Amino acid sequence: MEPVCHVGFSAVQRLAELDLTPTALHKGLAGGSAEARLCTEMDAPGMAGYAFWSRSNRALREHLAREGWTFSNSQSILRCIHPSGAFAITAVSGSGRVGDEDADFSGSVRTKNPKGPAMAKLVQRNHEQLPLFVLAASREQEEPEVNDLPTWFLLYKSSKDGLAFELSLPVEMHGKNVDTWRERIILSENPFIGAEFDIKRLDEVPNVAPVEVPVKFKGAL
């Protein structure tokens, strides 16, 4: 199967085939953004990024739970699981040309942080399994083990222009980063445009000049 990038109306249609809507993705990212913006310089470095990751997955789960989706934290991969048990979604931070429909399918869009063996196996399973075009057929099968499910990534990336995102199906890693995709779904509607959605600024360690305190020794006590 040749890789494909869905944009515009095609993206909305592809989401519908997965029983998803643009609102579902927006709700997840909005939840992560709201939580990250509560962080201040007095939080630990990197806290905003961690808060975004955790809360975006939670908000996505809470929104989809009303449609019968379940969830799993197996192997520390936060997944929403489709009611049919046919596939899962996880929100992760991305880097490179996230949200750019002209980006190459390999190498241009990557996960931001290094991934371990559990994620490598998950991506390998994605590569080995058939793409999900017809959910009805999957519903007739026995429910597979969660770590065998094809898993889509809701990739997000912040910049001074706001938050870019896409829902993509990874099929390969190079080094410790997932960077090759069979499908990419990029919505035209992005409600996260603007510097206020740049959580990267919150993740940066503040550049504060060191405080020098003069010490004078007055001799032995």
Description:
- It is a single chain.
- The protein has 221 residues and is α+β, with helices and mostly antiparallel strands.
- It has one domain (4-133, 159-197).
- It has 6 helices and 8 strands.
- Strands 1, 2, 3, 4, 5, 6, 7 and 8 form an 8-stranded mixed beta sheet that branches.
- Strand 3 (79-81) and strand 4 form a beta hairpin.
- The longest helix has 19 residues, at 47-65.
- The chain starts with a strand and ends in an 18-residue tail after the last helix.
| Largest sheet geometry | 8 strands, mixed
Radius of gyration: 20 Å
Number-wise, the strands total 8
Cα(first) to Cα(last) distance is 80 Å
Which structural class do the helices and strands define?
alpha+beta
Shape: globular
Helix residue percentage = 25-40%
Please trace the helix and strand order, writing H or E for each element. Answer: EHHHEEEEHHEEEH
Share in β-strands = 15-25%
**Total separate domains:** 1
Low-confidence stretches: none
Quickly count the helices.
Answer: 6
